[in-house]
């Protein structure tokens, strides 16, 4: 049997480890408090329908992940979903002001993400700008509905 | 025929009296709980031997179960293009089922059998009887600290198991197989709820801790004091507590997650 001091220290470390693991489960796994690291710059875009987009969803440019969705708020004037995106610092003064944002789905059942398409404007996007050219999420059920009603009309 | 009936009756009576004895036993050891600093020291020592010394096997098992879950889940989910749901799958199966059950099974094998053998040997070498002779209640001195240490240690081990398992799943899923990290965590966070999943898992492990330590300690205290009796009781501890954990898990899952 080891000495008393060692036992006390190791039991204390054991309990601390348990507590740390519980905190990890609370905050990181079940997301009790959303933590967001503040790096990069934020731009906004408002969509008519965001489908299944969630905070922390991906923002891609040419298929490469360049940022995350930071927050989603409802605009009470036009009832649109205004999405705040956090883009990488390296894209400051690289993206034109008329960059387009579209919500797309990865695969048939996959997650929604925002895909950016650069425009041709000379002015650059900066912190807090709003993207004007947006395209809402394609909702599969609506497409199927449209397809069925069109084909029955013929 | 009559002999067979008599043996069945004897078996039933023995079983009932064993249940009764174990009930009286756990009540007596928990009722007369000493609140001195010496009792605290004994309790610490037991947490060390059932908790800290079981840590290695829990860490390794948790890591590998998380990694295997991620690997298997990925190969299935990627067929549907839904590999982003990997985090959710790993975390939910760990918090709800795998961590409480597997940690309890490992605990029964690692710590439960040791408890039974230790107390059994104390009884066989008449240490318990001599304690009673000098006026120390063995239930308070020997049994109570072990019971309490088991109740505390297994939930902590389960939480650590879940943590390591999720980390292992992240290691394989994100680091190796290339699932998007944000989707991994955000899907996990949007589907795992702290009250419904994490806390229910901890409640499960509390129940398992109670059952496993109770069985282990009682088997040790109640055995036939021979070397054969000790080996029989140790086997019984592992078998009974594994069966009890698996059976109770079904009942608890039905109560907690099925929305009856």
From TrEMBL, chain A:
InterPro entries: ABC_MlaD (IPR030970), Mce/MlaD (IPR003399), MlaD_Phospholipid_Transporter (IPR052336). This is Outer membrane lipid asymmetry maintenance protein MlaD. Residues 40-119 form the Mce/MlaD domain. It comes from Marinospirillum insulare. It comes from the Bacteria. Pfam families: MlaD.
UniProtKB/TrEMBL annotation, chain B:
Keywords: Cell inner membrane, Cell membrane, Membrane, Transmembrane, Transmembrane helix, Transport. This is Intermembrane phospholipid transport system permease protein MlaE. Part of the ABC transporter complex MlaFEDB, which is involved in a phospholipid transport pathway that maintains lipid asymmetry in the outer membrane by retrograde trafficking of phospholipids from the outer membrane to the inner membrane. Probably responsible for the translocation of the substrate across the membrane. The complex is composed of two ATP-binding proteins (MlaF), two transmembrane proteins (MlaE), two cytoplasmic solute-binding proteins (MlaB) and six periplasmic solute-binding proteins (MlaD). It comes from the Bacteria. It is a multi-pass membrane protein. Pfam families: MlaE (PF02405). It is found in: Cell inner membrane. It comes from Marinospirillum insulare. Belongs to the MlaE permease family.
């Amino acid at each position: 049997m080891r000495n008393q001091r060692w036992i006390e220290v190791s039991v204390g470390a054991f309990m601390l480890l348990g507590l740390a693991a519980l905190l990890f489960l609370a905050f990181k796994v079940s997301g009790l408090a959303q933590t967001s690291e503040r790096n990069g710059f934020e731009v906004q875009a408002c969509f008519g329908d965001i489908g299944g987009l969630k905070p922390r969803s991906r923002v891609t440019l040419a298929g490469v992940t360049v940022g995350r969705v930071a927050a989603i708020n409802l605009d009470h004037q036009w009832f649109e979903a205004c999405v705040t995106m956090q883009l990488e610092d390296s894209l400051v003064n690289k993206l034109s002001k008329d960059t387009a944002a579209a919500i797309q789905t990865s695969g048939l059942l996959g997650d929604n993400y925002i895909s950016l398409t650069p425009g041709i404007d000379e002015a650059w996007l900066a912190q807090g700008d709003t993207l004007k050219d947006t395209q809402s999420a394609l909702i599969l059920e609506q497409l199927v509905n449209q397809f069925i009603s069109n084909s029955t009309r013929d | 025929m009559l002999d067979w009936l008599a043996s069945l009756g004897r078996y039933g009576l023995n079983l009932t009296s064993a249940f009764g004895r174990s009930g009286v036993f756990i009540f007596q050891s928990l009722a007369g709980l000493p609140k001195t600093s010496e009792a605290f020291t004994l309790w610490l020592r037991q947490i060390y031997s059932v908790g800290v010394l079981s840590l290695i096997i829990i860490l390794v098992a948790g890591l590998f179960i998380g990694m295997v879950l991620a690997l298997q889940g990925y190969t299935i989910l990627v067929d549907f293009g839904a590999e982003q749901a990997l985090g959710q799958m790993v975390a939910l199966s760990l918090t709800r089922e795998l961590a409480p059950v597997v940690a309890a099974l490992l605990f029964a094998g690692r710590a439960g059998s040791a408890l039974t053998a230790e107390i059994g040997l104390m009884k066989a070498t008449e240490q318990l009887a001599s304690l009673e002779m000098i006026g120390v209640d063995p239930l308070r001195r020997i049994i109570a600290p072990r019971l309490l240490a088991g109740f505390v240690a297994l939930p902590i081990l389960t939480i650590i198991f879940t943590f390591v398992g999720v980390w292992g799943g992240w290691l394989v899923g994100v680091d190796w197989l290339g699932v998007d990290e944000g989707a991994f965590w955000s899907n996990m966070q949007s589907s795992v709820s702290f009250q419904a999943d994490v806390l229910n898992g901890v409640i499960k492990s509390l129940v398992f801790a109670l059952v496993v330590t109770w069985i282990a300690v009682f088997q040790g205290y109640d055995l036939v004091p021979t070397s054969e009796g000790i080996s029989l009781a140790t086997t019984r501890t592992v078998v009974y507590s594994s069966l009890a954990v698996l059976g109770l898990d079904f009942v608890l899952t039905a109560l907690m997650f099925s929305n009856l």
